[in-house]
Write a structure and sequence with these properties.
It is a single chain. The protein is an alpha/beta fold. The protein has 18 helices and 27 strands. The protein has 3 domains: about 150 residues, Rossmann fold (3-Layer(aba) Sandwich); about 200 residues, Rossmann fold (3-Layer(aba) Sandwich); about 100 residues, ANL, C-terminal domain (GMP Synthetase, Chain A, domain 3, 2-Layer Sandwich). The strands form 7 sheets. It has a 9-stranded mixed β-sheet, with helices on both faces. The chain has a 5-stranded parallel β-sheet with strand order 4-3-5-8-9, sandwiched between helices. Strands 19-20-21-22 form a 4-stranded antiparallel β-sheet, with no helix packed on it. β23 and β24 form a beta hairpin. α3 runs antiparallel to α4, α3 packs across α5 and α8 crosses α10. Pfam families: AMP-binding, AMP-binding_C.
Amino acid sequence: MSEHTDSTALYPAADVAAWRAAGYWNDDTFATFLREAAARFGDNEAVVGHDLHGVNHRLSYRELSTAADATARRLRALGITRGDFVVVQLPNTTEFLPTIFALFHLGARPVFALPAHRAAELRHFLASTNAAAWIAPGSHNGFDYRDLAREVLPALPNPVQVIIAGPDPAEFASLGGDPVADLPAPAPVAPEELAFLQVSGGSTGIPKLIPRTHADYLYSVRESARICQLSTATRMLVVLPVSHNFTMSSPGVLGVLWAGGTVILTEDPTPTSVFHLIDAEKVTMTAAVPPLAMTWLALRPRIDAHLDTLEVLQVGGAKFPAEAARKVTPVLGCRLQQVFGMAEGLVNYTRADDPEDVVTGTQGRPISPADEILILDDEGHPVPEGESGHLLTRGPYTIRSYFNGADPGAFTDDGFYRTGDIVRRLPTGHLIVEGRDKDHINRGGEKISAEEVENHLIAHPDIIDAALVAIPDDYLGERSCAWIISDTPPTATEIREFLTRRGLAAYKLPDRFEFESSFPLTGVGKISRKALRRRLAATLTTDTSKDD
């Protein structure tokens, strides 16, 4: 079991005491979250969506709680117990919520993988947590997770039980088997204990795991629900991956369930599907990353669907261009709320009473009075108000270290998290995101570590060296370009096939390739990414995917 078991490892005791005294932290835990919601909201509709068998469900709070209890009995019969890490890799189907609440009931700790993660990421998640189990679909959207398990399991240092949700478990255990065991009482977890692990894009070549406690995360959920004005009348359409931090807690599915609203799950983000679901399900809010939101805006005039019930479109995950932000209300007829946050903690929202120019031109302000914000220059000195600098933050729901102490340089000695974002702050406290200071690429809200992709590229036998840089893109915000040094250059198709075989997620595959005999260097001998970006800008054409 990890050293990170409670707040004594994750947060200073004096800060915990202060946050409790201020009412930010309380005794709520995820072990009893759903049962308490069922007691409050009973027959209210909790979740609507399809399961992995393709069957549509409408579950009340009481029925969702019953489904979670049945799943908990099944998992307990399979040997899952308090303290176990369990990697959960499920799509936007109705199995997701009963599964995670079943794990919370047992005191187990979900590790929230995304459906797009592949062998490279899964090996890391399973090995670094010494996970007891991995829950995934059998085959979904053309990808066979059973084959992924067969590839990953032999390379792990310890055995991992694979549990298949949905049909055709093959040689693996089935999540849908008979729940033969008696249901134990909810695990007696403390609010300050580690509740689960989320995944960061990371800058060190492998994803980092983010430890969140019951107390810190539930504070963020409650405050987000309040700021976003959620109620029993809220009907939230979930289009982005449900296990993503934005979708889970900003205010996300957890905020909606805390407030007694309805979660409507879909896996189809296309405008036709989304607009017809908004019409049919009387959706009041939904959330998108900027490229998706811009697609919805562009195609809205062509789709015959009523959006009268839609009150709020949240946009986050990457900076939303102000020109697009100004179109939301006239085109969709709803209010825009910008969201800027990170799985490590800090969350910012524009508010319902913010002036229009603030809503369209900023990424919001922090949710908590206790959120501390530093904006520093390259030498670590505070910048004058209104000037751009590196964003550092500390507060009652922002982590002080990664799981197992990974990447200690991401934190200052006094506990501030170096976010990697370049921002400037208005006198109102609202932040405007200007870019990134690390070798990260934000491709439509998906964070890509340049070092991770470069390490895979250099493993190719015909590639001598590689550097990955961002390409500005009006649709995705950024795309990626791989600069390659090779005596016998492989084709772009061959490189992408090689990276796919190595288990790299599809969104991390380079969009463009450039081949060079040498790279420009900085004064200390490092690859100059700024020079590569300038060189790319000089040669870039309208083709953003230069292949063979």
